Amino acid sequence: MMLVRPPRFLSPSPAPGPREPRLRRPVDASRIFSSPRPPGRRPRPRPRAASPSTDLRRLTARIVELTRRRQLAQIMEEVEAARRRVRAGGVPNTIVMNAVLEAFVRCGDVDHALLLFKEMRGPRGCGVDGVSYGILLKGLGIARRIDEAFEILESIEKDSSIGSPRLSPHLICGFLNALIEAGDMRRANALVARFRKVLYEGHSVLLYNLLMKGYIKSNFPLGALTVKDEILRQGLKPDRLTYNTIISACVKSSEIDKAIQFLEDMKEEAKRESNPELLPDAVTYTTLLKGLGNSRDLYSVLKIVVEMKSSLLSIDRTAYTAMIDALLACGSIDGALCIFGDIIKQAGSNKDLRPKPHLYLSIMRAFATRGDVDMVMRLNKRMWPDSVGSISPAAKEEACELLMEAAINNNQIDLARGLLRRIVNEKKCFSWTSRVGLVAIKVESLSGFTNSLLRPHVFPQIILNDPVEKYMVPFQESQPLPADIILRKVMMRFLKDRAVPLVDDWGGCVGIVHRDDCTKLDAPLLSMSRGPPLCVPTSTTVEHVIDLLLREKSEMVIVVKSGNMYEGSYASSSRPLGIFSLAILWSFTGDYSSDIHDAGSLVTALEQDTGTCNCG
User: Fold this and answer.
1) Which residues contact 144 (CB under 8 A, 6 or more apart)?
2) How many Å separate Cα 526 from the centre of its chain?
3) What is the mean pLDDT of residues 303-311?
4) Does the keyword Nucleotidyltransferase apply (predicted)?
5) Which range has the worst mean pLDDT, 139-148, 246-255, 295-304, 429-438?
6) Measuring CA to CA, which of 22, 204, 359, 438 is 20 to 30 A from 330?
């Protein structure tokens, strides 16, 4: 079928007549020589300047981000740059300056916060509002400057404050929360009693939740139960936070039965009022699992785990970690592995469920106690690609220590010795009471004294029960220096000796100068000493002198006659007999090397000697 376009009917044109001359537009000479615009290209629009309100919003967001990083210097630089950009010498508005005030409070610099607050309410400032007063009150509470905070509250109550702020629960709750976080329930209760009428406006349970948290912080958790009774007397209804706080208080006071009862009350009230906001959440179950794990109640732990997995509750990584920790505390390693496998399976589709390194370490501790070297090695290997977040150096060290513990518990002495050798080479020092120290003692005891990896220093010429007088150096041979001499004149002496005794004009020892304390070239030596010298009588045993040097972290002691000791102090009028130092002790070791003068290495060696002797 063919469509035919209908004919166009044109109106008859008028008869041609004389044309009127067309008025031409005068031609601009600059357009004659300018190149014509290419066809199809439009002029580029000029960028519009951002409005001042948009700039201030961006600045506020930037200040909040820098506050999280605690970069106060960068915040002040950007605020000063914003002040220079504002025309006619203006200042940023109150919202921006409140963000700066919050940054000072978050970083603990309350003095600068007070100065900024005075500048804001000054004649050339941007002004203050209720938010400004709330932030300042919170900062004063954190800094424990309670009197200044109460003065500000009284001025607000009398309407004598600049900005005309109004007393409100939100204004006071920041200060109250700071007192509660510090555990100062006496002042917190005084604040509630003083402004009870204001705090009870609106009949909210927020105040009571804060008070319950305060009782938990002040090591009186059962006091939170009395606050719940007060809530019921006031005709208020507890919310989910109220129940979570009460359950936390019961767990902290080891009242697990009461915590389970409050959990049941929570579910019954939610069902009775058809209020899903009262149902237990992940925080409720996580808190309860912690208490059940501490009480080693495996049956209740399994019951809570089944209830969590069968409900519509969204289980996050923290809740899964609490399940595993509770099962491990109850000794159920198989149950913990089942939950751990569930986490790994779901982490493939949900990256937020990937476990953190400390969860791997918790499971590795359980297998290291069993002596399961294979499982500890597998978990250590999978911790690197499968965990989320950074692995701290302490976590890396603990993983290696757990592997050594598993090897020693499985009687694999050679593997444990190799791991201990690597730990000794990498770590500067470790405590004998730590995990690696206890395992090292086991390895050393099984290896024998001749195969020791810690290379203990032997004192073949010293008997620890001998008096120190037998091994001391006479005082004059130590070449003491005058106490008032300038360091610049004798600085070469400290390249040879790490500690030098000082004498006064009468020949009495008045101090000991250590090489590490020589920091002022033009100062007298006495000003750089560590106070009166350490003195011991001639009858003191060498063992006690070594303990004194290690405990006081000193290089030298002064030996005096027994009659010159008055309640442990040294009389400068009496003349010292000799000195005993770490350098002298080091010269009596069996593997003495003259090029070793480091006191830090010597102290570590002596601690190792003491640990070896205590190990038997």
Assistant:
1) 182
2) 39
3) 91
4) no
5) 429-438
6) 438
Around Cβ 141, how many Cβ atoms within 10 Å?
27
The pLDDT assigned to 368 comes to 92
Phi, psi of 226 (to 5 degrees): -70, -30
Radius of gyration in angstroms for the set of CA atoms belonging to the chain, rounded to a whole number: 39
Which residues are paired to 342 by β-bridges? none
DSSP letter for 330, please.
T
Number of H helices, E strands in the chain: 27, 9
Please state whether beta strands 535-537 and 509-514 pair in parallel, antiparallel, or not at all (unpaired): unpaired
Q: With H, G, I as helix, E, B as strand and everything else as coil, classify residue 559.
A: strand
Choose among 252, 325, 317: nearest CA to 291: 252
Residue 284 in tokens = 């409720």
User: Is the separation of the CB atoms in 444 and 454 below 8 Å?
Assistant: yes
Q: What is the 3-state secondary structure (H, E, C) of 181-247?
A: HCCCHHHHHHHHHHCHHHHCCCCCCHHHHHHHHHHHHCCCCCHHHHHHHHHHHCCCCCCHHHHHHHH
Angstrom CA distances, 261 to 95, 246, 276, stand at 46, 11, 19
Q: Where are the alpha helices (DSSP H) in 427-474?
A: 435-447
Whole-angstrom distance, CA of residue 410 vs CA of residue 13: 114
Q: Which pair of tokens denotes residue 332?
A: 């159920």
> Which of 584, 587, 585, 561 shows the shortest CA–CA distance to 574?
561
Residue 178 scores a pLDDT above 50: yes
Residue 413: exposure state from Cβ atoms within 10 A (0-12, 13-18, ≥19): middle
Tokens of 91: 């200042």
The dihedral over CA atoms of 360, 366, 367, 371, expressed in degrees to the nearest 10, equals: 140
The backbone region for 127, taken as left when phi is positive above 0, alpha when psi lies in -120 to 50, beta otherwise, is left
At position 167, the amino acid (one-letter code) is L
Token pair 């997995």: residue: 309
- Rounded mean pLDDT, 146-168: 80
Q: Do 155 and 171 contact (CB within 8 A), yes or no?
A: no
Torsions phi, psi of 342, nearest 5? -65, -40
Global pTM reads: 0.59
Return d(Cα 616, Cα 602) in angstroms, integer.
21
Rounded CA separation 155/164 (Å): 10
- β-bridge mates for residue 537, sequence order: 560
C-alpha triplet 109, 110, 116: angle, nearest 5°: 100
Return d(Cα 180, Cα 138) in angstroms, integer: 11
Give the whole-angstrom CA distance, residue 242 versus residue 533.
59
Q: Tokens 């004998």 correspond to what residue?
A: 432
**Mean pLDDT, the chain, integer:** 79
CA distance 317 to 324: 11
Query: Which string of b and e fits 205-244 if b means at least 16 CB within 10 Å?
Result: bbbbbbbbbbbbbbeebebbbebbeebeeeeeebbbbbbb
Which two structure tokens, joined as six digits, stand for 344? Answer: 């790994």
Q: How far apart are CA 194 and CA 191, in angstroms?
A: 5
By the 8 A CB rule, do 536 and 545 touch? Answer: yes
